[in-house]
Amino acid sequence: MPLSLNRRAVLRAGAAVATAPYFGVHARADDGIWFTRTVGPFVEVETTGGRVRGGHSRGALAFKGIPYAGPVSGPNRFKAPPKVSPWTGVRDATLLGPPALQGPGTTYGEHEPAYSEDCLVLNVWTPAVNDGAKRPVMVYCHGGGFTTGSGGQRIQDGARLAATYDVVVVATNHRLGLLGYLYLGDLGGADYATSGNQGILDIIAALGWVKDNIATFGGDPGNVMVFGESGGSAKTCAIMAMPASQGLYHKAGLQSGHLLRGLPREVATETTRRVLAALDIAPKDFTRLHDVPADKLLALQLAAEKGQGPLTVPTPEWQAGHPPPRPSLAALRAAKPGGWGPVVDGTILPHDPFDPAAPAIAASIPLLIGTMRDEATFFERDHPAFFHMDATGLDAHMRRALGDDAQRVLATYRRTRPDATPVEQGIAIETAISMGNGAVAIADRKAAQAAPVYRYRNDFPSNIAIKGTDWTLRAGHATDISVTFLNTEMPDLQGDGPGLVEASNAVSGYFTSFARSGVPTAAGQPAWPRYDIKDRAVMLLNSQCQMALDPDGQERAMWQAMGV
Length: 564
Description:
Blueprint: H1 5-10, E1 39-46, E2 51-57, E3 60-67, E4 90-92, E5 121-126, E6 135-141, H2 159-165, E7 168-172, H3 177-181, H4 185-188, H5 198-213, E8 219-229, H6 231-241, E9 251-255, E10 263-264, H7 265-278, H8 294-305, H9 316-321, H10 329-333, E11 343-344, E12 367-372, H11 376-380, H12 391-402, H13 406-416, H14 422-447, E13 453-458, E14 462-465, E15 472-474, H15 481-484, H16 500-517, E16 537-541, E17 546-549, H17 553-561
Parallel strand pairs: 2-4, 6-7, 6-8, 8-9, 9-12, 10-11, 12-13, 13-16
Antiparallel strand pairs: 1-2, 2-3, 3-5, 5-7, 14-15, 16-17
């Protein structure tokens, strides 16, 4: 039975890194409708890198593919991004720029160019330019774990949000996977001190570009919100813990993703040693990595994502000191070589982002954080057998993943959800492991600081059918992206069920008001109190939202008692 908790939950149950294939949104942008086309009349503005020409799109102005840093190929590979290379003349900014190098079919922008190692571009959507306004700025980190995706995905196009709520929206492309997170610090010394975190440093460079340029685009560089969904949320966690980001953003939003812990140096270095062994490069000759074709590096990464290839083979030194663990919750959370994500190097990322506490340098940053009610339907959607499990099947599935911990978890969920089917109980358990527990931990730890925390659970159900089952995605992972961005007319995971427009108005209203003032409000919806560990107020987002105190509290208490 091809059930997937072992593969998917291992990669995000509070572990250091979430990898790509399980964060992708499989909705295509090739259905013949160019929703996000930029048209005339065209508009020119001056940036610190040179002059760009954008145009009109869905009620706003759009400027796409603007370079915010210089080339990161060749001698700049694995290093912090260099300053942008200025250009002369007027650069066209009506089309998307290149996404980061990644596997085929994993980005969803309209008329998006081919993947490229040199991918450091961003998009801006704004109601107006050069008007002296100080609009809140919403900088979005795309999903796709740390290995796929782009800032051009059409359902996260920022034009409608900018036009409706008078905000400025920015989305970036940044390095991913091996090229974004290979750690050479323990092999290469000071010249590679920023390696292991170059993908996050790219986003921070984009925040620097925002600080220097966004006033031209009608935005307020003193009121910037960084937010993201799924892998983008995990990237935001890393940003919050990095000293280089201080002063460049003022609010944060985490949607269905977390990064409690980064990759330990020893784990990241083991991955690097496997890369070198695969390429027959001695560790002392690691600089030869600069000469390896990028596609060859990508091939190693893609094989590992399928559980194949040399990155799955431990070095003798690693194997001697790390015997295979028995299945357990602790084993699910443990960082493992062969994947990609921010590295706790002691300098660029000084410590784990949210373990054992929220980063002190983010104490003044208000936080909006939440998850989907049924996250796990998305992760299991390609495994119809999961949706036909009986109680015996669920027992076996959980024992394979959790070992001896399964008994306590199953007993709790059967007590708290006596009327739920085994499949519904399984979805609830996997949702907690994959996303829910991490969100609770971050909210609790951030609430100990001065700035407010606002927590939500998104309950709006998608009516998209899961093939081979009688299930829909319900409130599954990634069904909220188009809802947040007011892009529900674009066919995607959100479906077209009743209340969709109302839910989108509520969610987008709460997010944009939070970006503006630090307090989420939405027309016709309840007031949203700040979160604390006494009352645990959670907004249940829907077409008509409602407040709840500590929803699923008995389950939360069980997970926390188990050290999750």
